[in-house]
Amino acid sequence: MNQNPLPRSIASLSLILLLTLSACGASPTLNLAPASPTFTPTLTPTATPVPLAVSVNGEGITIPEFAAELARYQQAQSALGKTVGQDDAIKAVRDEYVDTLLLAQAAAANGYKVDDAALQGRIDSLDAQIGGADKLTAWETAHGYTDADFRVSLRLQMAAALMRDKIAASIPATAEQVHVKEILLYNADTAQQALGYLKAGWKFDDLAAQYDPLTKGELGWFPRGYLPDPAVENAAFALQPGQYSDVIHAQAGYVILYVEERDPAHLLSPDALLTLQENAVRDWLAQQRNESKIVFAP
């Protein structure tokens, strides 16, 4: 997976968030000593905790920083011609920040570090992509970043990308897969009629070609976790080569499946590999959320 923290466009960097915390003030604390004729009370400053909009395992983003990120997100959505409600925008920015920080924290725990040379190399690459350092500086200013803020945010995104790549790399290049064909219909009675033809002895390929002359029902090879409809996927993996299913009420309509082949270690297509990698990252994040202390400001 790409380590590029600007995978879609420079505008998508609106979701880069800040890690660093700073004390926002000090409150006086009376320092008392045992009574003596010469004792004079003195005041010593004590750092006041900074209110955080989002806290993840003790690290977080301040309320002003979050407000700036929210504004950047809404600006980016507006540039894409999208209108996002305030509540939905807040949730989107919160979720993105939590995911990014969870990944970055795990990267640090696993010994992954974005050093100054790597950070500068990435900035040099962005300079080239956007058309020069002056244009990148202008972009930072337009989106409310100082150069220091931008570097902190970019380092965080790069650390998160390192961990994301590690999770993705855990998916092997092969997996158990089935080669499937289908008869897809949009009426339950018609589907039951097609099933009757199969039971009467029609060959699946011939019948599939009758209903879909273009694809002849070909779905190709796929692993578990690839199809968007679990009912279809579960039914396919329950079949052995040469078997067809009953009528399945699927998301797309009424389906009869036929398994042409099975392979316990079939090479994944690029699309299937990417889907399984995305699933792995999503599942990892869900588990980390359950195991982490995440606090949102009221």
Q: What is the topological layout?
A:
Elements: E1 26-31, E2 42-47, E3 52-56, E4 59-62, H1 63-79, H2 86-109, H3 116-130, H4 133-142, H5 147-169, E5 174-185, H6 188-199, H7 204-211, E6 218-223, H8 230-237, E7 248-249, E8 254-267, H9 270-291, E9 294-296
Antiparallel strand pairs: 1-2, 3-4, 3-9, 5-6, 5-8, 7-8
Helix pairs in contact: 2-5, 3-4, 5-9
Q: What's this entry about, in short?
A:
The protein is an alpha+beta fold and 298 residues long. The chain has helices spanning 63-79, 86-109, 116-130, 133-142, 147-169, 188-199, 204-211, 230-237, 270-291; strands at residues 26-31, 42-47, 52-56, 59-62, 174-185, 218-223, 248-249, 254-267, 294-296.
Which short descriptors sum up this protein?
single chain; 298 residues; elongated; 47% helix; disordered N terminus; 3-stranded antiparallel sheet; alpha+beta; 4-stranded antiparallel sheet; 9 helices; 9 strands
Description:
The chain is α+β, with helices and mostly antiparallel strands and 298 residues long. It is built from nine helices and nine strands. It has helices at residues 63-79, 86-109, 116-130, 133-142, 147-169, 188-199, 204-211, 230-237, 270-291; strands spanning 26-31, 42-47, 52-56, 59-62, 174-185, 218-223, 248-249, 254-267, 294-296. Strands 6-5-8-7 form a four-stranded antiparallel sheet. A hairpin with a 4-residue loop joins strand 7 (248-249) and strand 8.
Number of strands: 9
SS strand fraction: 15-25%
Cα-atom Rg, whole angstroms?
28 Å
Uncertain residue segments: 1-43
